[in-house]
Amino acid sequence: MTKQVLLTIFGVIVPLIGVYYSVKKGKKPLNYIFLLISLALYYGALFNVKYLYLFSPRFNFIIAPIVYFYSFDLPGLAKFIRNRLAQIVLLLVIYVTVVFFIFLAMPGDYTTKFLDPKLMRNPEMYERMKQLFGVEDPWYVKYYKHMKNFFNLEMGISFSEYPKKVEEIIAERLPRTLFLFLASSVLSFLLGFDLGKRIAWKRGGITDKAATLVGIIFWTIFTPFYMLIIIWLFAVTLKWFPLSGFVTPSKWFNAPFSAQNVFIRLLWTELFLLIMWIMGIAIASKLKTIKAKKTAIWSSVIAGIALSIIYWLTNGMGSYALDIIYHLALPTIALVTLHFAGDMLVMRDTMLEVIKEDYITTARAKGLPDKVIRDKHAARTALLPLMTSFVIGLASTVSGGVITETMFSWKGMGLTLLEATTAQDTPLAIGCLVFTGVLVLFAHLIADILYAFLDPRIRY
């Protein structure tokens, strides 16, 4: 598309659709007031009018549709999403502001941390560098520049990994962290959910007591100590898995592609398998018998695995992908055994509360099989707190994997955040923290929306 066509679409057609909708659906003067405000924000961003945008044009593009829809009486879930998006934008601004002022309050500046001491002996050159970095600027000037750069997706240049840009480093390390923690989180979630509902249904027995004891031990164990035991047992003593790292350097010496390319393809494969599993659950929800539901889910998962295997056997990267998965195995085992305990205990406690509800008693009075009551009625409701923990925990692991990635030398976001903080690489540390905050905010929104689909009693 040419620039003129894009300008016609975004400068004329999109605003006209908004005006038409306001005229047709708007019944109050408030609709037209919000329409004018949103159009001012939109055109200010589109034509880069300095006094018509806030931090940056992209920030206007984010808030203009939210402002526009705020004057309409939307249906339940749409209204909830609109309000939550507005809250997310506000919380994001507050979060980025707090992170900025925390790092601003730290002693020293870029020139004293990273410049060559010989250069600092030349007063004229040193003053020029301070002016270039804006060291002498007032705090509000620094703040505005920071917010403008953030919403323009310009996080600056990493000083510890110069001349790489912060966004480039995040784009490089993020797939590694997501690949590791998505696999371990899904496995621990499934294991915790299944064991939790089973031991709660047969509470008080030996299995319940043993599983609860094991869960408490893994939930309360000191994580670095446990991971040292895992490394010593499986990597040093038994030598089943590599000691650390995410690839075998000798295998990749003459590789025709980078490890990053394989990581990204593996991540897409992982997401594809997750989608196939969700599709199986969606199909199963339309079926009536438990046997049919299980068949639908397992068929979807097996089909996804078969297609993934065919893909990796035919793309020439299969052996390299296996090397990464081989290095992934030990940290995944460590994370799954640690996290499943919390998921299992949450599921158990929630199930025990759900079992006392009247509708469970009614289902039993109707003569429904125990398996149907447990899986279809009790487990679905008890899943809500566990699903919230899973979604939010998945987002927070982007920075929360500091211990795991450090112990296993897995160069992901957690280890990057730790190294950036210890090296006082402010741009990179801020970039990692802010990116994590964005994911957590949107994870809360996804968790709330999932509540409406999982629990028929909840309506927005």
From TrEMBL:
It is a multi-pass membrane protein. One of its GO terms (cellular component) is plasma membrane. Coiled coil: none annotated. It comes from Fervidobacterium nodosum (strain ATCC 35602 / DSM 5306 / Rt17-B1). This is Binding-protein-dependent transport systems inner membrane component. PANTHER family: INNER MEMBRANE ABC TRANSPORTER, OLIGOPEPTIDE TRANSPORT SYSTEM PERMEASE PROTEIN APPB. It comes from the Bacteria. The keyword Transmembrane helix applies. One of its GO terms (biological process) is transmembrane transport. Pfam families: BPD_transp_1 (PF00528), BPD_transp_1_N (PF19300). CDD domains: TM_PBP2. InterPro entries: BPD_transp_1_N (IPR045621), MetI-like (IPR000515). Residues 174-451 form the ABC transmembrane type-1 domain. The chain crosses the membrane at residues 6-23, 30-53, 59-78, 85-106, 178-195, 216-242, 262-284, 296-313, 325-346, 383-408, 428-454. Keywords: Cell membrane, Membrane, Transmembrane, Transmembrane helix, Transport. Belongs to the binding-protein-dependent transport system permease family. It is found in: Cell membrane.
